[in-house]
Amino acid sequence: MKTARILHSRLSAMLLAAAAVALVTARAGPSRAEGAADLYKATVIVTGYDMRSRPKGFAQALREVLVKLSGEPRLRQDPRVAELAAHADRLVTKFDYVDQMAGIKVHDDQGTYDRSYNLTVVFDPAKIDATLSDLGEHPWLGERPVVVPVLEVQRVTRSYLLSAENLAAADQVGSLKTVAQELGMTARAPTDAEIKVWGVTMGGGFPAPTAASTSAQAIVAGTLEFKEDLPGWVGSWRLHWHGKDYGWSISGVNFDEAFRDLVRGVLRVASGHDGPK
Question: How many whole angstroms separate alpha carbon 258 and alpha carbon 220?
Fold first, then answer.
């Protein structure tokens, strides 16, 4: 009986320990491995869910995965990648569709044949890693900094500092976060409190935040101005990263593409490449 009680006590202790570990794991959130798995998949928008648009969707998804996994935006325009993209299905492990108009009643031919779908494509990690190696690249699986732009925005009728609380910038903040996610990064706008603490004010040209970039966040100072004569947005960016200063720019684009240029620059620098362009 004594032996049985001892065994029961030890078993209870083991179960309690296991429960504690499970609780800690649940609170910890997604593991780095789960985050890395996301780098091997991409979601693109296609028309229909048959073979008419699937090859193009696979090709687009492959380019996105190669760029965000390696941190090298130049791969998107690489002729070697164009050849690989033509046979992207060879690297796919699974895919699925989500109807963007789910729940909306189909009422004409366009509704049945030309509906937009989110196509999520998952690629084979081993094959993608080997593909990157053939391209002279490798997966960037380490921690990634959060992109924090400190921007002076000049629209046609108003100017402001980009911030999380500024309603005038809400559409731009949403765009920033979306394009960052496409590139395997996270971005956020600074709060009004941060802007104040960093001593950033309007009218001084390039903002000069007193906060410095760290391995956890990349602070990009810049200006984003709409030029009616182009027409389009002109973006100029500066980043101080690991003791070096980087500057780059883009012009004649919508603000989605301007933010994409900003994030691509940080992606390339933070992943260890030689500059933002």
Answer: 13
User: Over the stretch 70-91, which tens digit does the pLDDT of each residue have?
Assistant: 999 999 999 999 999 999 999 9
Residue 226 lies in a domain: yes
Query: 3-class secondary structure for the chain?
Result: CHHHHHHHHHHHHHHHHHHHHHHHHHHHCCCHHHHHHHCCEEEEEEECCCCCCHHHHHHHHHHHHHHHHHCCHHHHHCHHHHHHHCCHHHHEEEEEEEECCCCCCCCCHHHHHCCEEEEEEEECHHHHHHHHHHCCCCCCCCCCCEEEEEEEEECCCCEEECCCCCHHHHHHHHHHHHHHHHCCCEECCCCHHHHHHCCCCCCCCCCCCCCCCCCCEEEEEEEEEEECCCCEEEEEEEEEECCEEEEEEEEEECHHHHHHHHHHHHHHHHCCCCCCC
Which of 220, 141, 224 lies closest to 187, judged by CA?
220
Q: What is the span of the domain harbouring residue 221? A: 146-270
Q: By the 8 A CB rule, do 120 and 42 touch? A: yes
231-275 tens-digit pLDDT: 999 999 999 999 999 999 999 999 999 999 999 999 999 999 999
Q: Of 78, 110, 134, at which residue does a domain stop? A: 134
82/161 same-domain check: no
Is residue 39 assigned to a domain?
yes
Pair 179, 151 in one domain? yes
Is 205 within a domain?
Answer: yes
Q: Is residue 12 part of a domain?
A: no
pLDDT tens by residue, 135-167: 999 999 989 999 999 999 999 999 999 999 999
